[in-house]
């Protein structure tokens, strides 16, 4: 196994189980290229850790935002969190930390600059958060996330919350030559406490969905998430992976 002591120093966390750390750095393209011996399985890629880390980061950032900004309402908190944990936000942090140098990517991804792709960097950061959670528990993951994301949380945009439908329309028209559409896909709860699930599509692809106490609030939250995802997408833009 490679020496990851410098990466651990960057993360501010030392792993007990180095296999978890290494797995967090394995992109699927690398795993698919590994030869399999008789009865052997290919190494696990980082996608399951990415799924876990996504949830861990959402919880950590949500908790910190609630503490730091007690005046913000639910919708404002959701939009603010989306800015911090968006693909663009996480890839920027990962790039600043130099995480790309430790990634294991396939030959094709290597040739196409995969180590610097925002989607791959953001996924790796989420996977590392998931790995720390499994190795050291929630407190360890919380400490790492708070430390590495603190500057983004401190400088997060706190104005113009409800202009995201306009912002998404401008971004999608510029990048995809298409206009977003919004659809109520579900209504939850009794009439006196109803919540609306709204999906936003660009063309035929769904880019985000969100829950709000009104259709307008849900549309704004869905627009915010879609905006940040689209803003951070790679060239050859694709909608976010279905989780």
Question: Can you walk through the features of this model?
Answer:
The protein has 243 residues and is mainly alpha-helical. It has 2 domains: 5-34 and 43-155, Orthogonal Bundle (Ribonuclease iii, N-terminal Endonuclease Domain, Chain A), CATH 1.10.1520; 165-231, Double Stranded RNA Binding Domain (2-Layer Sandwich), CATH 3.30.160. The protein has helices at 5-11, 18-24, 28-32, 47-68, 74-85, 87-97, 107-111, 118-136, 138-155, 164-176, 215-231; strands at residues 180-188, 195-202, 205-212. A hairpin with a 2-residue loop joins strand 2 (195-202) and strand 3 (205-212). 38% of the residues are buried. The model has no long low-confidence stretch (mean pLDDT 86).
Q: For the CA atoms, what is the radius of gyration? A: 19 Å
What is the terminal-to-terminal distance?
30 Å
Largest sheet: 3 strands, antiparallel
Which runs of at least 5 residues are low in confidence (pLDDT < 50)?
none
CATH-defined architecture of the largest domain: Orthogonal Bundle
The chain-level structural class is mainly alpha
Please state the average pLDDT score.
86
The H-and-E topology, N to C, reads as HHHHHHHHHHEEEH
CATH superfamily of the largest domain: Ribonuclease III domain
Overall tally of domains: 2
- Order of strands, widest sheet: 1-2-3
Number of strands: 3
Shape summary: globular
Question: Which topology of the largest domain does CATH recognise?
Answer: Ribonuclease iii, N-terminal Endonuclease Domain, Chain A
- Name of the CATH class of the largest domain: Mainly Alpha
How many helices? 11
Percentage of residues in strands? 5-15%
């Amino acid at each position: 196994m490679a020496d990851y002591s410098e990466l651990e120093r960057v993360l501010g966390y030392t792993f007990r189980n180095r296999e978890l750390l290494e797995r967090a750095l394995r992109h699927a393209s690398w795993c698919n290229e590994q030869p399999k011996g008789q009865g052997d399985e290919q190494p696990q890629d980082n996608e399951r850790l990415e799924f876990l880390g996504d949830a861990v980061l959402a919880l950590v950032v949500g908790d910190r935002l609630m503490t730091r900004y007690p005046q913000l309402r639910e919708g404002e908190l959701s939009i603010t969190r989306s800015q911090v944990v968006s693909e663009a936000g996480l890839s920027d942090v990962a790039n600043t930390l130099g995480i790309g140098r430790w990634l294991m990517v396939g030959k094709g991804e290597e040739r196409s600059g995969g180590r610097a792709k925002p989607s791959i960097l953001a996924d790796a950061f989420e996977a590392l958060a998931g790995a720390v959670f499994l190795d050291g528990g929630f407190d360890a993951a919380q400490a790492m996330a708070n430390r590495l994301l603190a500057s983004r949380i401190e400088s997060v945009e706190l104005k113009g919350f409800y202009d995201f439908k306009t912002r998404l329309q401008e971004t999608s028209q510029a990048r995809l030559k298409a206009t977003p559409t919004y659809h109520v896909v579900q209504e939850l709860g009794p009439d006196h406490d109803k919540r609306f699930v709204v999906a936003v599509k660009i063309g035929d692809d769904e880019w985000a969905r969100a829950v709000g106490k009104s259709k307008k609030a849900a549309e704004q939250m869905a627009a915010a998430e879609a905006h940040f995802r689209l803003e951070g997408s790679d060239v050859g833009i694709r909608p976010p992976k279905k989780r």
